[in-house]
Each structure stands twice: as structure tokens, then as C-alpha cells.
Amino acid sequence: MKRxxxxxxxxxLKLTRAACIFALLGLALMSYSILDPRAIPVIVAMSVGHVFxxxxxxxxxxxxxxxxxxxxxGQSVSQAPTDTSHDSHR
Amino acid sequence: MHSSWLGNVALLTAAAAASILxxxxxxxxxxxxxxxxxxxxxxxxxxxxxxxxxxxxxxxATTHRExxxxxxxxxxxxxxxxNPRSQSLAARHSRNPFFGDRACYVCHADYGMYxxxxxxxxxxxxxxxxxxxxxxxxxxxEAERKIRLVKPYDNLNCRQCHTTTARVxxxxxxxxxxxxxxDSNRVSCASAGCHGFAxxxxxxxxxx
Lengths: 90, 208
Description:
The structure holds 2 protein chains of 2 kinds. By secondary structure, chain A is mainly α. Helices cover about 80% and strands about 0% of the residues of chain A. Chain A starts with a helix and ends with a helix. By secondary structure, chain B is mainly α. In chain B, about 60% of the residues lie in helices and about 0% in strands. Chain B has 12 helices and no strands. Chain B is elongated and about 80 Å long. The interface of A and B includes residues 20, 37, 38, 63 and 64 of A.
């Protein structure tokens, strides 16, 4: 529950970045299973790879929902200049 | 590695999705509508396409002889079936284009209604036994002595191609006299005295 609450309170940009990283991990596993089709790579791609992919898409959807909610309440959290975590990386 | 157009589609879509995602992570643009649509493509559409095509390609790869031979305990079976001079049942069937590169799968697949998932679950059991059941560390000679089929080979698999209703089959006296035993798998088509073992190299000399 704590994790879910943290996720819901997280900024859409952070969630989207997490989604990108999950998706990249999933894509890497799936691509590796094609290049090296042995038992473990194929099984890992079809299990862990798909879990990464689904997590990525869920994070992305959550980010969109949070962004829409923020826009509805008048807070523009998705704009890069107002995102403090984003600015701090610059 | 078996190159297939589906595998290429999986790699291309993965590369396209990765380029979108890396661009987003490096450039860190604002999350506007255009970016959201690009991300939908990079996180949703393209990875989904890549997942479907890589799954089909992966499942297809598991039916290839090289895949079965990729575990060292199957090296003897793989070498014998690939040997153009071997006269074992497995080798002769592997030289037949219908079996060819998928000979292990064609002969050992369960042909029941749920044959495909049942066969794949059996394959998962093999992987489990290999990595957690001690086969991983087992010398080849010991593996060839110890590893046996979990249940008697089903004659129905032979009968997928070799019909037992044709006149030629029925004119063989042994076929007719052993019909009940063959139907109930009490006598195997691939046994000594019948058509010989499929993989005779790992049988005791007395059994041949």
C-alpha cells in the first residue's frame, strides 16, 4: 500500500522515466532471446521480459492519469520547467 | 540462430521503440500531447508488437533440433540425428524433409487436443531438471545411461504418419498379431525386434 501511495504521489515525469527504463529492460531481454534462442534466454524473455513490458505500460498509463488529474486541478506538473526533479538534473 | 521474418520484425520494432525511449530519457522533453503519443508508440504499441513476434519466434525456436541439442546431455542424441551416415530411426527421420530441422519436436510432441501446451510444459520440466535436478553437472556418459523417457513412447506418434489401416501395414504378420499390444503401447514400434531403437547409441548392448 505504501508503494502504491508513493507511486500515486509521484510526478508523471518520474513515472514516465521509470516506464521507459522498464520498457528498455523488457525489450533488451526479448531481443536477446531472438539473438540467442537457448532455453534460459527464451524463458526469461517470455516471463521477466513480459513483466517488465507490462509494468512499463502500467507506469505510463498511471503517469497519464496523474497528469490529467493534475491538469484538471490546475497544476501543470508535466511541464519540464515546473518539474523540480527534472530541473535538478540540469 | 534461425533467421525468420518474425524475428526480424521483433528486432526492428524493439530497436524503433528503444530509439524513442532513449531519446526521451536523454533529451528530457516536456510531457506534452505529442510526446505522450510518441511514448504510447515507444512503450505500448511497438513493445507489444515486439513481445508478440518475439514470443512466436521463441516458441518456434524451441521446436528446432539445435535448441534441444543446446543442453549438453542431449549432445549424443543431437549428433546421432545429425549424422548423415547414421542408420538409427532418429537419424533416418531427421533426413526426411518433413521432420528435418524439427525432428525432435515432430516425434516427441504430444498430439492430443492440448498437445502444444502439454509439450511446452514438458519442456519446462526438462529445463527445471537440467538446472535444478542435477543434469547440469552430469557428465554426458552418465546422462546417456540415466536419462530416459518419463513414460513409454506413444506409438500414436509413429502412427501420425505410418497409418495402421492400410493394406501394406496389415499384411505384415507381426503387425496384426501385435495389434492390441501396439494400440496399448505395451510393445513399442521403436524397440528391438521391431523397427529398432530411435536412439540406439545409449542402449545397453544386450538390449539391442
